[in-house]
């Protein structure tokens, strides 16, 4: 598949600076550019590569100013990173069109309506009372339990498991190994051990959500565990029962959210972050990797560390810790001087 720089600029609503007819047939990182590739420059620290890249074209911002000659054709756009994402999506759709049809063997419970444009892979299981939206794709060995609702255009990849009664919105992506709707971790202590508390709720996932591989979202004890519109969850994340993750929040891998905690909208949560239960995280909070949060967090906060504190305080603490060996030595010398002068 091949395009010219001019055609790409038209798709991206950009402006070409250089050879409009140069042929583009692949993508490459700017530091690994090669002839026929298109790259992008979004992070300023990669600017030196634009002067030596072998890529045939580079997406740059409209206000980019070259400090020396650039061999590649430039395509000026509003947001190079967002533009390359859209171009990749277009190419992916062309090269990997949606599948259609029902492969055998698979199990579809009696009475389940399967639209003509749906794909159901071999060895998939569709339970009684399930609802499958138009254009949904359910890959081999996926499990869609009784009463589950799968929205239009949603993709459930191989081996994902959706337990009974859960709802998946439109245009969602559920990656392999994800488990949606397993029992929440609820046990009542008794004189004879722990008694299991039935988890009678479900998981409600809104539209345009992506759930990473091997991520687990537990069903609510009562009501719903909610994943709101546009949320993106990385691989290996645990969301406990009765939690709520606000719209357009993103979480990196290996994070854990304990029961009944609510995250606000447009939050950014780094890898291996742990959130205690029954707390509230405000909107647009940023939490650095491996931080631990054990209390409510105000909207707009920037946190880092364990237990997490604001970024400025954490930086001061880290600096002080690095100085501890020198400080210890100085205190030890002072103590010896005091002792010798007695």
Automatic annotation (TrEMBL):
The active site annotation covers: 241 (proton acceptor)
Q: Which reaction does it catalyse?
A: a UDP-3-O-[(3R)-3-hydroxyacyl]-alpha-D-glucosamine + a (3R)-hydroxyacyl-[ACP] = a UDP-2-N,3-O-bis[(3R)-3-hydroxyacyl]-alpha-D-glucosamine + holo-[ACP] + H(+)
List the protein's name.
Answer: UDP-3-O-acylglucosamine N-acyltransferase
Q: Which UniProt keywords apply?
A: Acyltransferase, Lipid A biosynthesis, Lipid biosynthesis, Lipid metabolism, Repeat, Transferase
Pfam families in alphabetical order? Hexapep (PF00132), LpxD (PF04613)
Which residues does the UniProt record annotate as the domain UDP-3-O-[3-hydroxymyristoyl] glucosamine N-acyltransferase non-repeat region? Answer: 22-89
**What domain of life?**
Bacteria
InterPro entries reported in the protein's UniProt record: Hexapep, Hexapep_transf_CS, LpxD, Trimer_LpxA-like_sf, UDP_GlcNAc_AcTrfase_non-rep
Source organism of the structure: Paramuribaculum intestinale
Q: Name one GO molecular function term.
A: N-acyltransferase activity
Its annotated function is as follows: Catalyzes the N-acylation of UDP-3-O-acylglucosamine using 3-hydroxyacyl-ACP as the acyl donor. Is involved in the biosynthesis of lipid A, a phosphorylated glycolipid that anchors the lipopolysaccharide to the outer membrane of the cell.
PROSITE patterns linked: HEXAPEP_TRANSFERASES
Note the NCBIfam families from the entry. lipid_A_lpxD, PRK00892.1
- Write down the top EC class of this protein: transferase
Pathway(s) per entry: Bacterial outer membrane biogenesis; LPS lipid A biosynthesis
UniProt record similarity statement: Belongs to the transferase hexapeptide repeat family. LpxD subfamily.
Q: Name one GO biological process term.
A: lipid A biosynthetic process
């Amino acid at each position: 598949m091949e395009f010219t720089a001019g055609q790409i600029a038209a798709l991206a609503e950009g402006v070409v600076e250089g050879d409009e007819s140069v042929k583009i047939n692949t993508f490459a990182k700017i530091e690994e550019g090669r002839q026929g590739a298109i790259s992008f420059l979004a992070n300023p620290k990669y600017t030196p590569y634009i002067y030596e890249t072998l890529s045939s074209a580079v997406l740059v911002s409209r206000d980019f100013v070259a400090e020396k000659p650039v061999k590649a054709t430039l395509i000026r756009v509003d947001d190079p990173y967002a533009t390359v994402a859209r171009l990749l999506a277009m190419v992916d759709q062309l090269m990997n069109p949606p599948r259609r049809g029902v492969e055998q063997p698979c199990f579809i419970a009696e009475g389940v309506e399967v639209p003509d444009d749906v794909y159901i892979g071999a060895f998939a299981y569709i339970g009684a009372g399930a609802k499958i939206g138009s254009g949904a794709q359910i890959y081999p060995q996926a499990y869609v339990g009784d009463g589950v609702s799968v929205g239009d255009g949603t993709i459930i990849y191989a081996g994902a498991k959706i337990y009974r009664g859960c709802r998946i919105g439109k245009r969602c992506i559920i990656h392999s190994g994800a488990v949606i709707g397993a029992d929440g971790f609820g046990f009542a202590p008794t004189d004879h051990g722990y008694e299991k508390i039935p988890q009678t709720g479900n998981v409600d996932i809104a539209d345009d959500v992506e759930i990473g591989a091997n991520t687990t979202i537990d069903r609510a004890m009562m009501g719903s565990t909610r994943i709101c519109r546009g949320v993106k969850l990385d691989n290996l994340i645990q969301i406990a029962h009765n939690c709520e993750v606000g719209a357009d929040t993103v979480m990196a891998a290996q994070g854990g959210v304990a029961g009944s905690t609510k995250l606000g909208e447009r939050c950014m949560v780094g890898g291996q972050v742990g959130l205690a239960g029954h707390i509230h995280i405000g909107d647009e909070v940023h939490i650095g990797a491996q931080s631990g949060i054990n209390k409510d967090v105000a909207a707009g906060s920037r946190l880092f560390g364990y237990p997490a504190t604001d970024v400025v305080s954490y930086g001061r603490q880290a600096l002080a810790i690095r100085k501890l060996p020198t400080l210890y030595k100085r205190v030890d010398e002072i103590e010896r001087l005091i002792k010798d002068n007695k």
